[in-house]
Amino acid sequence: MIVTPTTKSVTELKGLHLYHADMSNCSMRVRMTLTEKNLPWTSHHLDLRTKAAVTPEYFGIHPKGLVPTLVHDGVVHIESNEIIEYLDETFPDPPLQPDDEGERQEMREWLRTATEIHVPAVKTLIYTRKIGKVLRKNEEEDARYRALQRDPELLTFHAHATSGNGLPKEQIEKAEATLFRLFDKVEAELGEHEWLVGDRFSLADISWVPLHFTLIGVDFPFEERYPRVTEWAGAIRERPSFQEGILRWCPKF
After folding, report:
1. Using an 8 Å Cβ cutoff, are 75 and 61 in contact?
2. Which of 52, 60, 67, 97 is deepest in the core (most CB within 10 A)?
3. Peptide bond connecting 92 to the previous residue in cis, omega within 30 degrees of 0
4. Which long-range contacts (CB under 8 A, 24 or more apart) does 164-168 make?
5. Is pTM, for the whole model, over 0.90?
6. What backbone phi and psi angles, to 5 degrees, belong to 78?
């Protein structure tokens, strides 16, 4: 997704510039893709712990104040799964999409699903079990966020998740049920082929492995319930893109 920034200075940037955060699973998938492509990029790291993204300048780049944001020759791209698909199409060597059109559509479905469950499932569980305490906002920080944020879903989410109130029990239970349902599907797919879509490592794997990494950090029961997912994630962990895109920035979630 391309957006028009109000922070006009970014339109003058040349090359690939990534605004990202160490512990953001969405940032992880873009860093992995950049490494798989062996692309040079300029880092603009935002420390979420210090609320570095909650500024008028950054909201002028990303209208929701989220990470990551990719700026390519002055053009601003947001939404991590759209960014990694854009990178693969713009820099096609080596390819990270299947050749078969049916498998390519399947890959895009995995990307779409990862986007759809980000706030209601992944973010809900991660914030409940860990990040909500780290990113808790005081009254002044909360007021600053509310003055900048216009997205109703994020306003509602953060009103509970980072203000000390906690998310509703029903929301947490629904998040867990969604993740179990989807990782049941991942486990079944990996029983049919080596990677999430067919026998080639693809953007689908890059999109989903950061979810595994961060959910491991909040004790999601992969090892006892999902042996194939655990083996799949272990194989990806050996790739340079995982080492550079995830562990270099976030050794442990």
Report:
1. no
2. 67
3. no
4. 164/136, 166/128, 166/132, 167/124, 167/127, 167/128, 167/132
5. yes
6. -125, 170
Domain 101-247, what fold? Glutathione S-transferase Yfyf (Class Pi); Chain A, domain 2 (1.20.1050)
* pLDDT tens-digit readout, 149-174: 999 999 999 998 887 778 999 999 99
**What gap in Å lies between CA 225 and CA 172, rounded to an integer?**
19
Say how far apart CA 81 and CA 204 lie, in whole Å.
9
Nearest to 107 by CA among 87, 80, 85: 85
235 burial (CB, 10 Å; 0-12 / 13-18 / 19+) is middle
Contact 16, 70 (CB under 8 A): yes
Every domain of the chain and the residues it spans: 2-90, 101-247
